[in-house]
Amino acid sequence: MDIDFWHERWKAQQIGFHEETIHKHLQQFWSQMPLQGQEQVFVPLCGKSRDMCWLLEQGHPVLGVEVSPLAVQAFFDENQWDAQVEKQGALDCWQAANIRLLQGDFFALTANDLQAVQAVYDRASLIALPPDMRQRYAMQLNHCLASGTAMLLITLEYPQEQMKGPPFAVTEAEIDTLFGEHFTIKPLLKQDVLPQEPHFREKGLSALFENAYQLIKLR
């Protein structure tokens, strides 16, 4: 899986991962995060997620990163915001009001790009990546985030052999392996969601759990 894969998904509008409504677990657990309410929130692999609008409404400046220019353009168009675009290192920065989207490769980010970030929201980032890229993803976050950064991480767990991702299955054990050395990890939820997901049942899944975690970056 490479950048071209995601360019093609957006070009063909094969974006089943995009949700038109605000994710219920974001609304359920965000208030439990150790935040004051005005911290800048980083949303990796953000697409055109409406969750970013909800975070803005809570008073948070939002910083996203997205590889597809089609997704970035769609986000600003659908919200009727005129974005100013300028170069920021290896990425293009689209900005309007309190939101900035960096269009380009997540792995091109530097600690300087995320220096103001104090929280992270990941609903569809980690589970969008195959195993080898998940390790790189965790290492990149560890490298770029400051100590004390809080993260709400939402994952899916299912028998991986029953379906080809994305979204990929990520177990609690893998979360410990990926993040345990540099983050504290607090499980918040493990919920059976297969009865509410006919699309995944049609793919042959015998089990599907949605998990939520609170992570805090250590030194």
Describe the structure.
A hairpin with a 2-residue loop joins strand 3 and strand 4. The chain has a domain of 152 residues: Vaccinia Virus protein VP39 (Rossmann fold). The radius of gyration is 17 Å and the shape is globular. It has 219 residues and is an alpha/beta fold. A 9-stranded mixed sheet has the order 3-4-5-2-1-6-7-9-8, sandwiched between helices.
Short description:
This protein is an alpha/beta fold. It has seven helices and nine strands.
List the helices and strands and how they pair.
Elements: H1 3-11, H2 24-29, E1 40-43, H3 51-57, E2 62-66, H4 69-78, E3 84-88, E4 91-96, E5 99-103, E6 117-122, H5 131-144, E7 150-157, H6 172-179, E8 183-192, H7 198-202, E9 209-217
Parallel strand pairs: 1-2, 1-6, 2-5, 6-7
Antiparallel strand pairs: 3-4, 4-5, 7-9, 8-9
Low-confidence stretches: none
Q: Structural class of the secondary elements?
A: alpha/beta
CATH class of the domain at 24-63 and 106-217: Alpha Beta
> Span from first to last CA?
32 Å
Count of strand segments: 9
Mean pLDDT, rounded to whole units?
Answer: 93
Major β-sheet annotation = 9 strands, mixed
Instruction: Write the element-wise H/E pattern from the N-terminal end onward.
Output: HHEHEHEEEEHEHEHE
Give the amount of beta strand, in percent.
25-35%
Which descriptor suits the 3D outline?
Answer: globular
Strand order of the largest sheet: 3-4-5-2-1-6-7-9-8
